Task: inverse folding
């Protein structure tokens, strides 16, 4: 693993190194209704970089970026881009991170998860994203020999609402049954989690309302909000966690602070970095701000706790 993580230049056109998408549910997506709305949409956002936002996802998939044999460390990370539970920022919160991990000998798997529908339309429900994340963790462990992965070093990473999804997978991994018998034997609990400007709490005063509305509906009950708010579901089995965020984030810093405090209360190893400015949604973009160093801090954390 190199001492200095590779940074990637801003892209002005579509990247050419993207693997083929693989079906997450080849046997058929649970509850999917073919006559329902399944028109996935992709739009470019931002003037400086090629940054696609994919919305209306009904058929989930993933893309494998295995580490090269010559520097493979055996670690793997599932990457969950954010998008307020309305879509995924697939480039700067997905593919860029896969390249970052590959440069350090870590296999990466970018998840394009279903968007939830609180009313369950088109076979979707609030746990559809979580079901997709847990299935990919199982798939990765089932392919450990194929990719040279240590099944005990499989983590999950998420940005913004993708951070909320990664948090749910780190704490509600035992809540959803796996229907494929060959995958059911695989452990769905991630070994570590990486949360970058994450949504954590779904309570009024702390939450990102757009994410909460898309996931739980307009008027969720207090019981449901608690079940999906990270500060209340941490246990001693929650995996070790890395967090990075800024004070001026539109997702209030209290989200990460509350999660960090819950980790401390349950003796879960956690490291958190808060920078004064940078806003939200920056991914790995370099803007000459302190927050630009978060990938370096993450690299050091991985070297200390994941790759020994």
Result:
């Amino acid at each position: 693993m190199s001492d200095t993580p590779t940074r990637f230049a801003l892209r002005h056109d579509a990247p050419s190194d993207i693997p083929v998408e693989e079906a997450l549910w080849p046997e058929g997506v649970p509850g999917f209704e073919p006559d329902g709305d399944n028109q996935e949409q992709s739009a470019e956002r931002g003037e400086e970089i090629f940054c696609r936002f994919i919305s209306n996802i009904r058929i989930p998939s993933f893309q494998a970026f295995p580490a090269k044999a010559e520097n493979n460390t055996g670690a793997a990370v599932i990457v969950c881009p954010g998008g307020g539970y309305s879509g995924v920022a697939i480039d700067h919160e997905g593919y860029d991170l896969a390249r970052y991990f590959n440069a350090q000998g870590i296999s990466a798997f970018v998840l394009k998860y279903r968007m939830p529908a609180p009313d369950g339309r088109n076979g979707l429900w609030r746990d559809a994203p979580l079901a997709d994340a847990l299935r990919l963790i199982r798939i990765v462990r089932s392919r450990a020999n194929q990719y040279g992965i240590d099944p005990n070093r499989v983590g999950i990473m998420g940005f913004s609402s993708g951070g909320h999804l990664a948090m749910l997978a780190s704490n509600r991994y035992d809540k959803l049954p796996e229907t494929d018998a060959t995958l059911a034997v695989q452990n769905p609990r991630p070994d570590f989690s990486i949360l970058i400007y994450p949504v954590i709490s779904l309570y009024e005063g702390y939450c990102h309302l757009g994410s909460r509305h898309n996931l739980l509906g307009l008027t969720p009950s207090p019981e449901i909000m608690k079940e999906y708010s990270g500060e209340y579901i941490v246990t001693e089995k929650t995996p070790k966690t890395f967090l990075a965020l800024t004070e001026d984030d539109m997702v209030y810093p209290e989200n990460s602070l509350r999660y960090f405090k819950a980790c401390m209360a349950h003796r879960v190893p956690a490291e958190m970095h808060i920078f004064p400015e940078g806003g939200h949604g920056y991914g790995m973009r370099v803007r000459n701000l302190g927050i630009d160093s978060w990938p370096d801090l993450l690299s050091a954390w991985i070297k200390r706790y994941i790759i020994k």
Notes: The longest helix spans residues 128-142.
